[in-house]
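Following the same procedure, sequence and fold were stored together, as reproduced here.

>
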Amino acid sequence: MRRFRRISLWRAGAPLALLCAGLLFATSATNARGTDLRPSRNTTLAGLVEEQSRRSASLVRQHAALTQDIEKLQAQQGSIDPKLSAELKELSEQVGTTPVTGPGLTVTLKDAPREVVKENPDVDADWLVIHQQDIQAVVNALWAGGADAISIQNHRVISTTGIKCVGNSVVLHGVPYLPPYKITAIGDRQKLQKALDDSQYIDNLQDYVVKFQLGYEVKNESSIAMPAYEGTLDLQSATVPGFEQTPSGSPTASGR
């Protein structure tokens, strides 16, 4: 009698177990959507940063293409006054929404080599990597040297461009980038170089370049084709140093 009950319970439980297994497989297939649920090599930080950068670049290109379509349609309809159109073109060059070409410099910044990091385990890790203030120092020096246009990682720098560190990457226009960092400027090469040489911050950075082999390289460029800024120009908020922040319906920001 006891044997009969055990067999009956097993026969009743087997279909239930199979049903649960089927539900689990179906749930996994739905969540996976045809992809592998197992972790892959792309889950590393570097892989995630590169994937996000590619995705953002694709969206920026789509935004730029749609903006060009709108401008073409407006031009065809003749909705823009010729005088206003000329002013718009001049302003777009100043803002950075127009491609430019010319001679200039490219400054490349790199973290310390891996072997140097291994040979200096007691050294503060922050001394062995490039930070946002290093990039900002180069950009500020190039502006001070009379640069007509600047790009970072081949992305145009405008008045609202922000540079900040997030982990071991630098975020530019909301997109993370890993080193090496390339800052390119169009302008008088001698004046640009002199501005870099006169920068006290860059002079201090050179100490780390010598001691820990941080990468700092300046290259003369006879001709640079710099793309236009393709992101949004919407400004969320801005404050003027020394003044209390007050709500405003049309916030403004100062230039560089």
